[in-house]
Amino acid sequence: MPDRSIEPPRPPAPRPHDVPLGTFATLRVLRRNPIETWTKAHFEWPILVGPTILGTIAVVNDPAAIRRVFVDNAANYRKDALQKRVLGPGLSEGLLEAEGDNWRVQRRTLAPLFTPKMVSSFAGATAAAAEDLVARWLRLREGRIVDIQPEMARVTLDILGRTIFSDGLGRDLDRFAAAINRYFANVGRLDPFDLLDFPEWLPRLTKLGSSAAEKFFASVVETLVARRKRLLAKDKAGAPRDILTLLLEAQDPETGAGLSDTEVKANILTFIGAGHETTANALTWSLFLLTLSEEWRARLALEASAVLSGPVEDYAARLVETKAVIEEAMRLYPPVASMSRQAIGPDDLAGKRIRKGSLVMVSQWVLHRHRLLWDKPDCFDPRRFLPGSREKIDRFAYLPFGAGPRVCIGASFSLQEAAIVLAYIMRSFSFELKKDHVAMPVQRITLRPKGGLPMILRWRGNRVEVPAAVAGPHPSG
Ligand code: HEM
């Protein structure tokens, strides 16, 4: 048995402040790294309501109150304007940013694309992309340092490419990836003008340079959509059954109406925007955390060797320990580090009065490390997410994918994807972090390691060494 007396590793995180920062310091830190603004009280209190430079904000960490915001009284809370400005115009007609009836119609029209059956039909394309990643890494010089963060962004983009446009992206994946990275790197930055509610026509310095990338990105999607529409009109049965075809054929189950061309394109951009870097960062942080634990590296290598054979559709269900590591990584380093809503009318949350117009913020960064909700909140311990313990976690204390009607539509897609990719890596490689590199999290549109994640990779063949501590019956058989 593993030695339970050993304290689990405590990975790097900015230290919360004793007292709130002043206005200018807050602005500076919000621009540099928003997770550095939190104070100790945020990690200790169920709710804190107070005036800030963004107006009155309620930071909510009480699971019952969070449930009220996202489920029981969800109609009283709408996505706030700041979030939309940060995401930019490219996604504005898609599901992530839609509101009211338009959102309801899009959500029920798109839901059939992400049923469990549909998601498992994407497992084969996911495994093929993971195999290509392993093959590419095998061609690298043994012991070479690789920055894992762009590598994971590349593989998740490859997976979206294969599942959305299964007949090929049409142009070079790397060029497409570079345009996406440039676009989202700028788009995800909080601009002081946005924070101070300056008019939209004023150019944002932080966004300059993203428009060329956005145009390139939109023109590729435009070409691929037009090509597929021609194919569907000529030979419907011969067209690939991928997300693009599903989007073009999607119908509102209540009215039979399809999506407009603009909505199809906006949702492709949305799926790439919402699903590419998020999943990449969940994988990046999982690999980083695994560098801290020999026990979990060995457990995952063992599980991968046992599971990566047989029907590919079953991989995700059988990769139990792999998923526990990914879930623990998304607890400690949530790819989406905060969500915000604006109160349309007054409400009461955790004993505090919420006024009309107030901003309600749920920060996964804070919630997932909250002193009242987690044992050893800052420590890496995937056992919390193994069957038997997982069920004891309050649904509203752990929100990597949000909650309620606007919960992430791609949650099971990305969990399957992350589990398969991580298992392929763990089966074939051992790795360690580059000496002296500190993986400090920085919040852009997603939470990523500052300066990337340089690691030394070594091919282990298919030989899995099992330390005595982890030998024994294996849950996945
Ligand atoms: C680890 C990976 C992912 C994480 C952590 C994540 C996280 C989230 C979160 C927190 C929300 C809710 C935001 C809010 O309520 O304000 C959300 C919504 C959404 N996500 Fe994801 N996501 C991931 C992967 C994906 C993937 C792979 C896709 C698509 C293929 C996707 C598509 C969406 C969409 C369309 C929405 C908006 C849903 C709606 O408003 O109805 N996400 N995601």
Describe the SSE topology.
Blueprint: H1 23-32, E1 47-52, E2 55-60, H2 63-72, E3 77-79, H3 81-87, H4 100-110, H5 116-121, H6 123-138, E4 145-147, H7 148-164, H8 173-187, H9 192-195, H10 210-234, H11 243-249, H12 261-291, H13 294-307, H14 315-318, H15 320-332, E5 339-343, E6 347-349, E7 352-354, E8 359-362, H16 364-367, H17 411-428, E9 429-433, E10 441-443, E11 447-449, E12 454-459
Parallel strand pairs: 2-8
Antiparallel strand pairs: 1-2, 3-5, 4-12, 5-8, 6-7, 9-12, 10-11
Residues 95-96, 107, 270-271, 274-275, 278-279, 282, 335-336, 339, 400-402, 406, 408-410, 413-414 line the site of protoporphyrin IX containing FE.
Structure description:
The chain is of the alpha+beta class. The chain has a single domain (23-470), classed as Orthogonal Bundle (Cytochrome p450). It has helices at residues 23-32, 63-72, 81-87, 100-110, 116-121, 123-138, 148-164, 173-187, 192-195, 210-234, 243-249, 261-291, 294-307, 315-318, 320-332, 364-367, 411-428; strands spanning 47-52, 55-60, 77-79, 145-147, 339-343, 347-349, 352-354, 359-362, 429-433, 441-443, 447-449, 454-459. The strands form four sheets. A five-stranded mixed beta sheet has the order 1-2-8-5-3. β10 (441-443) and β11 form a beta hairpin. α8 (173-187) crosses α10 and α12 packs parallel to α17. The longest helix has 31 residues, at 261-291. 41% of the residues are buried. The chain binds protoporphyrin IX containing FE. Protoporphyrin IX containing FE binds at residues 95-96, 107, 270-271, 274-275, 278-279, 282, 335-336, 339, 400-402, 406, 408-410, 413-414.
